[in-house]
Amino acid sequence: RMVKMQGLKQDKCGLLAHGGDDQRRNRTSLRVLAAGFAPCLLFLLSLFPTSSAFTQSSLGLEAKYGVGVRGLQASATARKHVSCLSPCAATKALPGVTRFFLPPFRSTAFGSPATRKCSAALLAQADDDAEVSPLEALVDFKGAPCVVQAVTDKAEILQLNRKTRKAKFKDLQVVFADRPVRSWELQELDGTLPEPIVSPEKVHAELLITGGTCTVGELSSKLFQTTTTHLTAWAAWKLVTEDLYFTGTTQTIAAHPADRVAKDLEKARAKKSQEKDQTNFVKRVKDRKLKASDMDRVNDVEEMALNRAQTSPTLKLLGIEQTPQAAHTLLLELGVWDSLTNPWPARFGVVMESFPKSLVAEAISQIAAAKKLKRTDFTTMEAFAIDDADIPDPDDAISVSQGEGDSLQVWVHVADVGSVVRPDSELDLAARRRGASCYLPNGTLPMLPERIQESLGLGLANTSPALSIGFVLEDDGHIDNVQIVRSTIKVTRKSYAEAAVLMEKGDGPWSLMEEASFRFRDRRLENGAVGFQMPQSVVSVRDGKVDIKLQEHFDSNDMVMEMMLMAGEAVSQYALDKEIPFLFSTQGPLKDLSPAKYVPKKQLLKGGRAPAENPFEIANQLKEANKEKKDKDRIGPPETLAEMFEFRKRFERSQQKTKPDTHTGLGMSMYCQISSPLRRYSDLVLHQQLHAALNGEPLLSEEELLQRVTDTEEQVGATKKAERFSSQYYTLNWLKANPDYTGGGTCCALWQPRPGTPKIATVLLKDLAFFANVRCKQDVKTDEEMSVALSGVRLVEMKADMRHNVNIEMLYGTEEAEMFKRAAKSRKQVGTRLSTQTKRQG
Question: Which among 129, 513, 622, 818 is least surrounded, fewest beta carbons within 10 Å?
C-alpha cells in the first residue's frame, strides 16, 4: 500500500522496480521508503534466497541508491532470525546487508525518530572492516567536486561534466554530507563561489591561537557565519587546498605557521603582479605597440623563428601556433624584424658565430711557421688567378707554357692551406665543424679565420705560398708526368670578363690556356661527359637594398673549370702512383627517366689514363668502346631550357670513395676535388694528406679520411641549402618591393593538378633567373615564352604568386576559356554546398 501510495511502479512480487522518469521523479519518496521500512525490506529480502529475483532490472537500488542486493542469499536460519524485525537480529542474520543499507541511514534528516534509532543501531552493529561512503555527498576527487551516486567495491561519482566514473575510496574526501547534494547543485560549484564574511587571515589567526584543528564544516561556519551548505563547504575547502593559510584533510584542518603564510603571500602577490604584467604585454602585442622592455620577452620568439627552439612560452601565452613560420610572421608584424632579416642560415644550422681570439692567435702562429718551409721559387712564372671580381678568397691560379712538341706544360697553383691548418688542430676542428664557407647575398660566413684568407689567398699579397700541381698535357688530352711541390708564386688577378677579352685576343699564355682547355674538354666529351649551364643570378644586399643581376657566362669560366678538372685528375694519378690513401669524387650512371629524349642505350664506361700498377686498363677500354659507339648511342647534352630542366633530374648525387671510379657527368675515370681548400673542408683534408706525404709524416688511413669527410656532409648540405634559400628569400624581397613587376619567362615544365583543371607551368623568369609556378590561361607548350605578372608575395611562406599575363578578350570562345568557366562554376558550387551544410549544422 505504501508503495502504491507513493506512485512507484511495482513488479510481480510487489517490490520496488525501475520506473524510468518515475524513478527519477520519486527518488525522495524511494529514499523515505528505504529508510522508514528497512526492517520490512530486510524481511522481504530474506524470503528470496536466489539472486535472480534481485537483479538490477527488477530492483534498481544498488546502482542508483546504494542498496546492493545482487547475489544476496539468505539461509533458513537467516529467515528465522529476521522475522523478529529487530535491527540487531537482522544485522546478525544478514551482516552483509548492513553495509548495503548503511548509506541511506547516514543522513538523520529523513525518517521518524524510530527510523533514526534503527539507523543508529545498524551503524553501531556495522563491521569495522566495512567501507562506508555517504550517498549523494559532496566529495573532492583530485581537486574537483563530485557527488557519490552508488557504492560497491568502489564509489560511483558524478562529475561536473555530467559524466559518471568509478573512483577508489582513498582518492575521495567528503566535503559536505549533511544532506544530499543534487546534480544541479553540483553544477553551481562550477560558477562563482560565495565570499567569506570573516577574512581567512582572522580565522587563521584564531586557529593559531587555539592551536587545534577543525573540520571543513567548522571552518565554513567560522568563515561564513551561517549554516554550512554545499557552496560554503566547497569554498572553505578550496581555501584549504590553496595551501596558503590552512592544510590537512576535511576532518583535520590546521593552520600554517605565520612566517610561512607571510612568505607565501609575498609569492602570491608577485605572481599576481606577473600575471597582470603578462596581460598588459598581450594587449600591447595585439595593439602592435611594444615597449623597449618588451624586447626581452620576444627572445624566445626569435629562437623559434630561427628554428633553435622547439617551444616558445611567449607564443603559447599569445595563443599562436609554435612554428618558425608563425614566429617569423609575428616578428615582422611587431617590427622586431624587417623583411631583410634572413632566418635561413640559422634555420639550417649554419655556424654563424665569429672565431674566438685564441683561434685567430693560433692562425697567426701557424702562418709564421709555414713561411719557414722550404719552397720552390716560381715567381718568374706567369700565374693568373681568374675568379669573380669581388671574391674575398681566391685560392687557385693557372700557368701554361709550351712543352716539348705539341704537349703543354700546365701548372695549377692552389692556396697552401694544408701547411697552416694541421690535422686535429683547433683550426682543423673549427673548419670541420663548419664544413664549407657559406656565401650569402648579405655577406660571407668563412670556413677559416679571415687572417688565413688574407695571408694565403692567391694574389692578395705581392707573393703567395702555394701547393703547385704540374703535369704535361698531351695532344689527345691525356695527363703525364705529374709532380707536386710547395712553391712561392707571384699572381696576377683577373676577372672572368677580363680573362675572356684576353682569350679572344689570343695574346701570350691566354691562347695556350684556351688550347689546353679544348684538349681536355674534347677528351671528356668523347668519354660521354654531359655539361650544360642553366641561367643563374647574382643576388646581393647593399645599404638595405636588394640588387639582382644575371650572371654572365664567359668562355673563361669554362677554361678555368677545365683546368681545375685537370688538376683533380692529375692529383688522383699522383696519389695512386705514390700509394697515398686518398678520396675520389665519383658519380653513378644517369637515371633512366623514360620516356625521355636523352636515354643512353649504353651506360658510360670507365675512361681515362690507367695509372701504373692499376689493374684496369680503363683508357684502352674506353677508347675502343667509343669507336664502336654510334652518334645516336651517345649521351647528348640537352639544348633547350626545358630539356636542361628535366635532364637535371637524371644526375646521381656525387659520392666520396676511397677507390677511383667513374664520374659520369664529368666523363672522367678518376677525379678528386683539390682546388678550394679555403672554401671546402673535403679539399683541405686532401691537402693535409699531400703535405704529410711530402714531409714523410704518418698518413691518415682511408677509413679516417672517409670518416672526416662524412662527418661534414650534413653541414655542407645545410650550407648549400642556406645559400639557395637565402638567394630565393632576397629575390622575393625584391619582388615585394616591386609589386607592379611584369616580365617574360620560358615554360620549362607543365603539369596538371587534376583532370579538367588548367595546367600549371613552371616558368623561368629571364631577368631574375627565378622559377615560379603560373596557372596557364591559354595553351602553352614547353620552351615557349610566357608573359607573367606579379600578384603577390608571401615572404614567410617563400612563395611568389604569379599570373599569366594575357589579354582576356583573346580567350573568348577558346577551349581554355571554357575550362576556366567549368572550374570556376565547380568551385562556386562546392562553396555553396559547404555554406548550406554549415547553415544546416548551425
Answer: 129
